[in-house]
Specification:
64% helix, five-stranded mixed beta sheet, 9% strand, single chain, 403 residues, alpha+beta, 12 helices
Length: 403
């Protein structure tokens, strides 16, 4: 059974425990009323404690059992209706032992279904009225009546105990239901976060690799078309080798990224996160694409999640510089630590993205990368010309769980 199928079952079970009702409707209480009527009838015949039952006595005794059919749904009205029949029955001094089971069941139901305050008030009213009426009508039987009152109080206390137990079990079921819903929501949130992470990784990887392949292919095409009679085979071969190397790197990183989709079958297969040690490869790839890159990295180390975020931000910034900054742009990559944070900036001297072009997901992805580790990112044109991406990523704590 799925978790989502269990929650409604727990909810229905909790409601039934709190109310004492079940799926069979009135049938259980009707059968209980019938059984009590048979028991009280036998008791009225075998045990004698008062006047023998005549037609009126039988009518009052059996009429007191009829309201029990609705005892689980309307305990207070049922108790009052039962009292309207059993009160005159005792006042007429009919067999006092016969309706005792009926009275105890009605009192128990009242204590189970009501609040502690209502049970206390009802019990006090019953005791006071019973003592008053018995003192006025049968003063000689006060000792026996006090003993009976002890049983009444015991039944009310037992019903209150059962009510508390039902409330405890119902509360436990409600907590289990809430925990089940929380687990489902957490699972859905994790799935959404993982899908977003995979989408960002694929975007960064494919955008970077395809941009480099496009630039390298343009170089090879230019060499082939510039002077076919004096073909520079060495330059063409180098461009094709660069394309092949870029494809191999992209294929390996793509395989590592997509392995997470098989995690449910083979465990956590994410593989190592890219980090700051891979920045030199990014710079080299950008240089092969024609950019003049200068790097200044003064970072001793960073948590894996922060290092991966910085790697992806630099990767996307270099990709945008190669794509949008024009021919042979000058790019500067700088990373350094400052007051518990990793600060990075990637600047170029190009023209930046085309204002009329279709916006992509690069800047959005970089900001999401920064936010995923609790950092911030700014990107935009520089006053002196070119484009700048700057980010501040905290490195005081390891936030790998936010990958």
């Amino acid at each position: 059974m799925q978790a989502s199928d269990k929650s409604p079952i727990l909810a229905r079970l909790g409601r039934r425990i709190r109310t004492g009702t079940g799926p069979l409707g009135l049938w259980p209480d009707a059968l209980l009323a019938l059984g009590l009527a048979a028991l009280d009838s036998v008791t009225g015949q075998l045990l004698v404690d008062g006047r023998p039952l005549d037609a009126l006595g039988w009518t009052l005794l059996l009429a007191g059992h009829v309201p029990l059919v609705w005892r689980s749904r309307r305990p207070m009205p049922v108790f009052c209706l039962m009292g309207l029949a059993i009160g005159p029955y005792h006042a007429l001094d009919y067999n006092h032992l016969a309706p005792i089971p009926l009275t105890m069941v009605a009192l128990y139901t009242l204590a189970v279904a009501g609040s502690a305050r209502r049970t206390l008030i009802t019990g006090s009213v019953i005791v006071v009225l019973s003592l008053t009426l018995n003192g006025l009508t049968n003063p000689e039987g006060m000792v026996e009546f006090v003993r009976i009152l002890g049983w009444i109080i015991a039944v009310l206390l037992f019903g209150g105990y059962i009510r508390v137990q039902r409330q405890y079990v119902a509360s436990a079921l409600e907590r289990a239901e809430r925990a089940e819903r929380t687990r489902e929501e957490e699972a859905r949130r994790r799935v959404a976060e993982e899908r977003l992470r995979i989408a960002r990784d694929l975007h960064d990887l494919l955008a970077h690799s395809i941009t480099l392949i496009g630039v390298q292919t343009s170089v090879a095409a230019h060499v082939l078309a510039a002077d076919p009679e004096r073909l520079d085979r060495e330059t063409v071969a180098k461009a094709l080798d660069d394309i092949a190397e870029t494809c191999r790197s992209a294929r390996g990183e793509l395989r590592t990224t997509l392995d997470v989709l098989r995690a449910s079958e083979h465990g956590d297969a994410r593989g190592p996160l890219p980090g700051l040690d891979g920045l030199s490869d990014l710079v080299e790839a950008a240089q092969l694409a024609g950019a003049r890159v200068e790097q200044n990295v003064r970072v001793c180390g960073a948590p894996p999640a922060v290092g991966a975020a910085a790697y992806r931000i630099v990767q996307e910034a270099l990709t945008n510089a190669v794509r949008h900054a024009g021919s042979e742009p000058a790019v500067r990559v700088e990373l350094y630590e400052d007051t518990g944070a990793l600060r990075l900036s990637v600047t170029d001297d190009g023209t930046g993205p085309n204002p009329g072009g279709t916006p992509g997901y690069g800047l959005v992805g970089m900001r999401e990368r920064a936010r995923s580790v609790g950092g911030t990112l700014d990107a935009g044109p520089r006053d002196a010309g070119g484009f700048e991406v700057s980010a501040v990523l905290p490195i005081g704590t390891d936030r790998e769980g936010n990958r």
